[in-house]
Amino acid sequence: MKKLSSKVLGLVLIFFLGLSSSIAQDSIPVGTNYFVEFQNIKKSKERLLYFFNTENPYNKNSGFDWLDKVNDYLHEAEKNNDDESVDYYKIIRAQIYFDIGSYEKSLSNSKELYYKKDAWDLETKAILLDLMDRTYSELQLYPEQIEIRKERNKLEITDNVTFHDIYSKLGLHRKAMNYYILEEKKSIDDNDYYGKAVYEHNIGNYLRLDNSCPVALNLYNKANNWINLYEMDVTKVKTEKELAKIEVLKAVIEGNIGKCYAQLDQYEEAIPYLERSIEKIKKLKKDKFSSDLVENKLTLAECFLKLGNFKKTTDYLTDNLKPRTEENLQKMNMIFASYYDKIGDHKSQAKYLLKNLRIIDSIQTNFTKLRNEQQAILIAEDQKYTKTRLAEQKEELAQSRDKMVEKEDQIQLVFISLIFTLLGFAGLVYAYLKSIKNQRLIAEQKNIIENALVEKDSLLKEIHHRVKNNLQMVSSLLSLQTKNTRSKAAIEALEEGKSRVKAMALIHQKLYQNEDLSVIEMQGYIESLINSVQSVFKKGGHNINITIDAEGVELDIDRAIPFGLILNELVSNSFKYAFPNDDKGKIYIHLRKELGQPGFFEYTDNGVGLPEDTDERTKSSMGIRLMNRLVNQLQSNLNIDKTSEGVRFWFDFK
Questions:
Q1: CA 145, CA 134: separation in Å to the nearest integer?
Q2: For the whole model, what pTM was predicted?
């Protein structure tokens, strides 16, 4: 019965989690036309905030449509000498250039605005500086990016200056991961499931880039679990932008899992992850340049090439690929070269190999030197930042030390005054010290007593455990004897004896499993006892509805053992005699005992009832005689009532 309930509960939980997940996914209003809503807003500042608070404004109109419309607003603001609106529209235009991949134009617009920012509010400054931070990163201008981050920190837009992503862009993935863990882990709240998903995903990325793909896969799966928990958390209302962020992160994680499998040469496993990721990113980041999309397409083309599917290879290589980094350009050229090599077109192969050689020469002459310079600047800034933090900590320690010295001086003055005061109360001090000594002695004695009690509890648990084991051995011996006995009456007697022994063994089992060795919780004990009796009768009793009403009742062992044996007899008799056709019968067990009040026990079933010669049977039946003796141990008398349906046993006890 309990196993069935747990399975049903599990199915219900899975159903509701799946339902909440589908509700979360379906709740993104895909029909919203952000371009139209943007135009319906009248104030330029409100348009700025609306644009930057929308996850993907290009769901209905391309970035170029947006660019034309924003330029119209910009020209109108310039005509009206509305300098504030001009700045706002230029910020939006810079972001649109960034989204379509025109990073140089985005930076040019941002730099023009940078020198005006002191007149703006903090929110607008934060938008511009964040955009410049991302633009410098894409253009690999890391020293300038560091300066922007320092300024964001100074304006308290961000809590600290972090360099982990820059280290990764420079190829120092392990160092990036160590910095990231040091800086981010302590700031993630236990209930921030989305933050945990991002954290696990980023660490996985650093490990994947460092060719530790098996560990990275484990972290991506953890990130997936956290994002699913966040998505299914119905206690937190999620905005449209937050729901879109969930889907984007899930798509990126899926693509990175595919890239891991590809790096491990498991191309068939990689393909479905990469295909799903590409479809999702195309839908979610429509008209936005996505480096994840480029990398996924290149990896997918490489997988199909390795598996000999040349058509799919060329499909993805020519699917609007616009690699922006030297690394992706090299990868694309290398895949083309390998493709032409496999189909025997060595002239085209040589052309793409030559392209790669030019890129490599360019990197060796310019890029490598620039990277070394950037690494040196980054390390210097990192050291400077570390020194600044150490200096701040030293200053804080010095201030703390000064305060401690000041407090110590005050304490000394107080101490001197106390000495003169205490001289007049020497007797009280002596009494107090003596009291302290006595308290210590009491504490030591209390500790000894507590240790003795713990040892006693352990010993009692061991005793109950051994008693239970011995009773189980007796039960096993009775089972062996049953197998060697042919007399039906003897077998029944042995089975009854075995059942009674199990009832007593169960008492001792419950005792050593309890924290409190003095009492037994009767609801759980009765449930376990009935399960034990049902197992003896195998098929019998499984169609009987048993109701137990003993919640909160606890009895000591002297009363629990008689109760266990009485219940064993009653339930066994019901299973054997009350329901001969194994009909859907009912058994009701009621037990109540409140502190300082007499207890009450009642057992009823709706079976065939007692025979007409019950009184004569009572004298001869071992079960009835046993129950009478057990009830006498509880200082009470057993009452038996014949009802219209079945039988009722009941008695009071102390």
A1: 8
A2: 0.47
